[in-house]
Specification:
This protein has 234 residues and is α/β, with parallel strands linked by helices. α1 packs across α8, α3 runs parallel beside α4 and α4 packs parallel to α5. The chain is globular. The protein is built from 8 helices and 7 strands; from the N terminus they run βαβαβαβαβαβαααβ.
Length: 234
């Protein structure tokens, strides 16, 4: 029997949720597939993890379907795609709102649809999603992001109820706090420093959570889990 296989869609910088999740599953013995837009960076990551790189625009359903069709059997799929841009509601236009929907919601649908078909044929597997606190509550300046994440939460919940009885574990991880990833390090280093040790979420900790979910016994599956630093208010 070959190795277990995992695909992570939305792999960016090394210090990020996508790469750290792929790394965790690789270290646990999985063959990993890393998908994203940056072909060169993906190739470097794939070499590091002895995996496979898939250049992919997850907003394109044909591209997503083709990528999944070309893969062998899959044990776990992780959707880690999304865009969070602050913009006051009065300053939004329809094009901006739609772009946020395409990044946050359409990608989740495309991946969930392709993954569901793959795993139903196998009769087993896991589909996991990185989510955000915006899925639970809207805040000023983040109406478009909240609309996408909130809609995803309900779609994923419905999917879990539909696929759970068919031996497919569907779950979402709600990230509530600043992720200590490359984006925050580059754009808001002063905030990371102010939050101090363990004040922001380590991407490797999120990766550990996905691994934990994948290995839960069927008698005790989690559908939704929230993560935050110990000093984060909520």
């Amino acid at each position: 029997m070959g190795k277990n296989t995992t695909i992570v869609i939305g792999v960016g910088a090394e210090q990020g949720i996508g790469f750290q999740t792929a790394k965790k599953f690789h270290l646990e013995g999985h063959q990993v597939y890393l998908a994203g837009r940056d072909r060169q960076r993906l190739a470097q990551h794939a070499e590091t993890l002895n995996g496979h790189a898939i250049a992919l625009d997850a907003t394109n359903p044909d591209a997503v379907n083709a990528a999944f069709a070309a893969l062998p059997s899959l044990d776990c799929i992780v959707h880690n795609v999304g865009t969070n841009i602050h913009k006051n509601f009065i300053d939004m236009d329809a094009a901006f709102f739609e772009s946020m929907w395409r990044s946050n919601s359409l990608t989740a649908f495309n991946v969930a649809r392709a993954a569901s078909e793959k795993l139903l044929a196998q009769g087993r597997g896991s589909i996991f999603f990185t989510s955000a606190s915006a899925a639970m509550r809207g805040k000023p300046g983040f109406a478009a992001f909240a609309a996408g994440r909130g809609g995803n939460r309900l779609m994923i919940q419905a999917l879990a109820k539909e696929l759970g009885p068919k031996n497919i574990h569907v779950a979402q991880v709600i990230v509530d706090g600043i992720v200590n990833g490359q984006r925050a390090i580059d754009r808001r280093p002063e905030l990371i420093e102010k939050l101090g040790e363990n004040g922001s979420i380590d991407p490797a900790g999120i990766a550990d959570t996905f691994w934990y979910l994948h290995n839960q016994p069927k008698s005790a599956w989690t559908h939704e889990m929230d993560l935050r630093p110990f000093k984060e208010t909520f």
